[in-house]
Amino acid sequence: MTSSPLLVTFEDIDPVVRYTPFSQGNPSQGWKTEFPSNEFIQAISSSMQGVGNSLHRTTRAGAGFEFEFYGASWLCIEVRALSSLRRFPIPLLARVNRYEHSTRSGTSVQLFGIAGNTTYSVSLDGAPAKAFTEQNGLLAELHGLPAALHKIHLTVDIPSPALIFDRAEFNAGIERCV
Length: 178
Description:
The protein is mainly beta and 178 residues long. It has one domain: Sandwich (Jelly Rolls), CATH 2.60.120. It contains no helices and 15 strands. A hairpin with a 5-residue loop joins strand 4 (40-42) and strand 5. It is globular and about 40 Å long. The relative contact order is 0.28.
């Protein structure tokens, strides 16, 4: 088997990102979706729809977001048809004991946004991660995660003036069938 990287991006409006206490409303009480371009178009339902890159902004202490993602783990299956052998990789969502699968380490996750002087905390799989300070749009970055289901959570501790979340990216070292 050979290995190659896989990059997955979750935008702030992706439904896998769960916001607390809510995802759309007054940013002093929860989160609000904003469009920096301030461009809107008329949607079919006669409401306005934002154009361009969206961001989620909050000024509330205790507001947070989380999402789950899978580290790398692939199962190789062989299919014999018409005298030819083909191998197909499929994502392995649960351990299958009778097949060999990869548990290659190398998954990393990055959170992008703007924090200014806002303090925030990040947890991974329910355990506190190291302290982070936003640098050049990178809110947090964790490396060397094992091949497994992970949950990352960011909580605003002291908003000063606000925390803006743009997107999350995770890189996984995957195993490819050869």
